[in-house]
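Re: the 71-residue chain
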Amino acid sequence: FNMTILDKSVEHFMTKNVDTIDASLSVFEAADLFSKTSRRRFPVMQNNRLVGQISRKDVVIGTKRLSSHHI
C-alpha cells in the first residue's frame, strides 16, 4: 500500500456535493428522478436529517408492489 493513501481520511475521498431526495416523495416521483440520472442511490432526507437511502432496486420493488395492488 502507498503510505500517503493510508494516511488519508474518508473525508478526503467522499463526495461533497451530494444530491438528495426528500422522504415525502412518492416512489413514482423517485422512479422519475432515477430515470433522469445515472445515480444508483440517493440519500433520503427529512427535516434536514439523513433518514436513509433509496436505491433503484428499492424503487423497482416498490412500484411493482404498488402496481400489483391496483390490478
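The chain has a mean pLDDT of 89.
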